Amino acid sequence: MRMTTKIATLLAAIALPGPALADAIPATLYKNPQCGCCENYAAYLRQNGFDVEVKPSNDLAEISSQAGVPAEYEGCHTAFIEGYVVDGHVPIKAIEKLLKERPAIAGITLPGMPMGSPGMGDDPTKSFTVYAVTKDGAKPTAYSYE
Amino acid sequence: MSDFMLISRRSVLLAGAGAALTTVTRPWQVHADSTREMRIAAAPGEAFLVGGSNSKTDVLGYDGRVPGPTLRLKQGEPVRIIVENKLNQDTTVHWHGIRVPNAMDGVPGLTQPPIKPGESFTYEFTPPDAGTFWYHPHANSLQQLGRGLAGALVVEAREPYPVDREILWMISDWRLRPAAQIADGFGNSMEAAMSGRVGNTVTINGTLPRNESVRPGERIRLRLINSALARMMALRFEGHHPVIVAIDGQACDPHEPDEGRLLLGPAMRIDVVLDMVGEPGKRYRVLDDFYDELAYTLVELAYDEKPVARAAPLGAIASVPPNPLPQPDLANAERHELALQGGMMSGMMMGGNGMMNGGMMNGGMMGKGMMNGGMIGMMGGMGDAPWSINGMSMTGDGQADMPPLLTLKRDRSYVLTLRNETAWWHPMHLHGHSFLIAGRNGKPNPRREWSDTVLIPPKQSVDIAFVADNPGNWMLHCHVMDHQMAGLMTVLRVA
Description:
The complex is a heterodimer of chains A (about 150) and B (about 500). Chain A is an alpha/beta fold and about 150 residues long. Helices cover about 30% and strands about 25% of the residues of chain A. Chain A has four helices and seven strands, in the order H-E-H-E-H-E-E-H-E-E-E. Chain B is mainly beta and about 500 residues long. Chain B is built from nine helices and 32 strands. In chain B, strands 21, 22, 24, 26, 27, 28 and 30 form a seven-stranded mixed β-sheet that branches. A six-stranded mixed β-sheet of chain B has the order 11-10-13-18-15-16, with no helix packed on it. In chain B, a hairpin with a 2-residue loop joins strand 26 and strand 27 (about 445). The chains are: A alpha/beta (about 150), B mainly beta (about 500). The interface of A and B includes residues 57, 65, 74, 112 and 115 of A.
């Protein structure tokens, strides 16, 4: 599958220092203008081959809420990747799964700013529950465990 | 309900039974006892925040307006302000920056019972200081202020200040949805632990600003008030040199701001004198570039063609006459340290692997066992407040049983070091007193600056000095309203 190939390329890119590949998947990341950990997460996405545009905004609560993320499931920043919302410090594996499976959901979120998550200490021993969110306001359900 | 019923019990008691009926009068009436009287009502209303007759916003406002009426008082002259509550919830009014008696300070529970819907409360005080102040509720503050309840309060000095005219900009911001309605979601816990609810629409005096018309050669006193919930502002006047003459109502040595930026945190006021040195017919932008990459044009100064006719050239900018503030004795002052703690990323600034070790939230959060749950735990139920002062979190708007962090001896001088250990800016407001900004980051302040709301950048400290001359229980809190509600608040008792 094309996407699989793309992801394989992305994974290969992790090892490659330097600029993102030409066919990197574009991502737009909205962040609080004063939050530093969001920059760490943008760097994490870039390391994983995404072409990340960071946009500071004071309207994050509205952006994530409009995208379908309930307030109590919000992360501290909101990214949009291939039409999906990716909220908070979501590990790359969950994003890969999302882009591979392409479920009929609004996107995924890792609520809060959990310690050890990507951009928040990057502790590989920590595990996190990523939630799927929909536009209809239904309670988010577990999407993956990373 | 008859007018008589609207009078609070307090005003009946104060005025005496015989005078009670006569206290219900038109605004501004001067009574036989020479006390000026006015009325304002906290009420729902509609406002044209974004201009245009098709885009009305539902608001709460004093007299239903945004901002509420500008109250002009006279220094040293008693005033009686009857506040009616036409809301469906309790309210109070805090006269921000005015050194009032404790019972008039408007903190629910702590200084007065809240004003219930349909009831009223009579505030009586004599403003000791001239200057730029404002009034706002201290009940359900996030929503009530965030939906529009605020007004400017100008205390006029006995002598006029030598300028051609005066302009007042009450700058606020709103989180509007496309139909110009104020977005719900007040108290979002992620925002509460970060920068608070910063809006997406900035208004001056309740409307989207376009032009401020000025004339070449004018000298203007511009009173700036930041009445936003959380938005910090850094104003720059293209082609002009604003001179700060007063901060939070109190005179300072006239000076230009550092790097030409007027830093105005929530609840802060700055009076500047602007000499209109621009060219006739031209326009000059007023920019706000506080937030990185989010600079915008607040308004434009639009010059008329015709200059002001002036018989003699303008002299130097005059100092504002100082107010009768008690001078703290710095050498013999009692000193205390207050650490502002918590919020997101507090440990990330520590460098090294402080973040890894759980330094994301420090202080009060750690004290409360939030380490293990981290943000997830907090998001789960918000059981613990994200902010604290010296490890203690007081949340909400004020309650009767708030224990004082410090008890200050009446008439003694104090220096309090407010140490911001967090990663966020905090405009810290002390009720009932104005204070000298004696130092920053351990260094003495070269300027004599008084204030009641001081903006403390992340990881910096400010020494505030004052004489504790006003007895009672006084709030000290962050005026980013989300931060106050979520624990960045304490009480100082003067006894």
